[in-house]
Amino acid sequence: MAAPAPPPIRRVPPLLVGAGLLVIAGGFGLPRLLSDPVPAAVTAADAGKPAPPADGPGLGAALGRMVVSLVLVCGLCVGVARLVGRKPLPPAKGMAVAAALSVDPRCSVYLVTAGDRRLLLGVDAAGVKAVLELPGPPPEPAPAPEATTPEPVVVGPVRMLSAGLPDQIASLLARIRTRVDAARR
Which site among 15, 143, 152, 181 is 20 to 30 Å from 70 CA-CA? Predict the structure, then answer.
């Protein structure tokens, strides 16, 4: 059995890279812009005197600048993420589930129409296990009387509007089960 193919490499949009670099530069630059200016250079007259102790900003002022910088950088991150965020994919057109039948609590069979093709899908908890294209054109629905609306037919936990469809699915399931039984022998 061959190893599964590696997932395709996703390219990062250049706009997102540029926005990330801008946020990083802002994170480094904002504290410098908010801090006190550098004290003036030492003059020749002050060269002989001992230097006074360096009075930096107080602990509260330093923490305040750090919090303000952190809030601004996080705000920039959120803004850029919303600006460049993923756009939802458009819904698939032309595909619809015509009927579904629960085989057991973990397995189901779906009849899917895709354009003029009919597909029978076998699905369990791990995903799609079998796909079978049904031959022939899709059956034409019987014309309903104008005065009344057709009552839905209940097959297990699923409601279907076509009366002939459950029989087709049941016959397909029977054929699949006989093939599976034959393959096991």
Answer: 15
The pTM for the full model equals 0.31
Counting beta carbons within 10 angstroms of the beta carbon of residue 65, is it exposed (0 to 12), middle (13 to 18) or buried (19 or more)? middle
Query: Residue 3's pLDDT is what?
Result: 60
Residue 122 β-bridge partners = 109, 130
Nearest-Å Rg of the Cα atoms of the chain is: 35
Domain that residue 176 falls in: 95-139+152-184
The string over 148-176, giving b where at least 16 C-beta atoms fall within 10 Å of a residue's C-beta and e elsewhere, is: eeeeeeebeebebebeebbebbeebeeeb
Q: Are 132 and 175 in contact (CB under 8 A)?
A: no
The pairing of strands 153-155 and 158-160 is antiparallel
Q: Which residues contact 109 (CB under 8 A, 6 or more apart)?
A: 100, 101, 103, 120, 121, 122, 123, 169, 172, 173
Question: How many domains does the chain contain in total?
Answer: 2
